[in-house]
Write a structure and sequence with these properties.
Layout (H helix, E strand, L loop, with lengths): L1 H30 L1 H32 L6 H17 L2 H18 L1 H8 L6 H23 L4 H13 L14 H4 L1 H17 L15 H19 L3 H7 L3 H28 L6 H23 L14 E5 L2 H7 L1 E6 L2 E4 H23 L1 H11 L1 H6 L4 H23 L9 H16 L4 H24 L4 H18 L10
Parallel strand pairs: 1-2
Antiparallel strand pairs: 2-3
Helix pairs in contact: 1-2, 2-15, 2-18, 2-19, 2-20, 3-12, 3-13, 3-18, 3-19, 4-7, 4-9, 4-10, 5-9, 6-9, 12-18, 15-16, 16-18, 19-20, 19-21, 20-21
Length: 497
Amino acid sequence: MIQKSLLRRAFPTLIILAVILALGVAGVKFMGQQSFIRTTLSGLTLGALYFMVAAGLTIIFGLMDVLNFAHGAMFMTGAYMGWQFYTNPTFLFGILPLVLAFAVGITTTSLWLPIVMKWDLSEAWQKRLRTILVLSGLVLVVLGFVKFDVLGLAETAMVAAMNAGNPLAEATPQEALAIFWRRPALLFLSGLLFALATARPGDKTQVVHAGKVWAPWARLAGLLVLTILAVLFRESAPIAVLKMNGDLRFVLALIVGTGIGAALGIIAEVSLIRPLYSRPFYIVLLTLGLGYVLRETVQLLWDPVAYAMERPPLFSQPGKADSLLAWFSGHNVTIDILGVTFPSYRLFIIVLGILMLIGLFILMRYSRLGMIIRAGVQDRNMVEALGINVKRVFSIVFAIGVGLAALGGIGAAPFVPVQPGMGDAYQMQGFITVVIGGMGSYGGAGVGALLLGMARAFGDFLALKFEMSPAIAEASTVIVMIIVLLVRPSGIFGKKE
């Protein structure tokens, strides 16, 4: 019985391997060995990028049943944040104190909750008070940004991108500390008011989750210290980053961009999506609007212009490495793979996609968080009865999904133009990947991304060889989806309902 079950699970994989092997043999004979290898490597690069987007969609939709149509915009945001940090991070360090100050105020929620629950307020006054608190918080946010030269800070990266030989190009002078300190103070008060509003004063139906008494105070103290440091070093920190080794700066850009993406995911889930879990159609409209807002914000800050992010020194040295071992010492821009010259950075993207797949598998299958996530999806009431905050777990899930998309955007930035609409095409391919692989299947997302990447790469080759319209190559991924769904409507690794 067990052998039959294992065979049933492995059957789709065996079929896929057999089809890939047959197509590989036919491709070598038809295209020639070098063209086949080059096209295959290009397909693997595209597949890795598709998987970075699809992995986040798989987590969010497969576990939370949320269709996030802002996923492509999150991919774009990650690319812009990585490009910004790597090129000139003045903008990020300039607004960081304000963001941290707001976070300090929000963090006080756990401190206020036991107090405000004791208030004796009618239901009508509960709603009125929350409305007053939210509106007052918004007013303070506006006051905090009045006459704040956000566009001037954003232009620093644009200037640096146009003056590649001088990454330390003079930026717009920032406000003196005597003036600037009022802005974090206003943002802190705003966060405090929002914390009170989210605590729902007077609502005695809430549940206070037991935990370490000192934990909320520790978080608050840590964020407060970071806020003070961000205020004091907002001008010197960008210069220190730009003086770093380029490879180290690129690694930090990956971390920072992914972290910003994850933070945006948490904010979106808590403030916008969480109240609409019972109305999935509203979530679709909301995420569509959120994607539009993010794209327009990016255009406002950095203009609708395509920027090129320089490759880190690790992948930019002139010449070609004869082998992978030679590349480790030479850091050449290209590398010889089975007689084919291939960009070394694209090989890095392939490796990054593989590492992401392995990391995601370990996280979801063998970590405590992964077990809690799966349990929370299957039986939310049981998990809450065990004292686990399911709402917080779902926020973490959303953060992981969006963070993966942001990481994909940063990875793509050195060889894909950084522009407002760059995430739209990848979002579409991500949705197709999830459908092909099967909803909620991480292995399926990996296989689906591989199939789509290969379909697009070989479609481009055939379109070029036979002088056909490039639209045919773009349609190749849709054709693959149709074929898979005709054979297996639930996706390759999807479960039949």
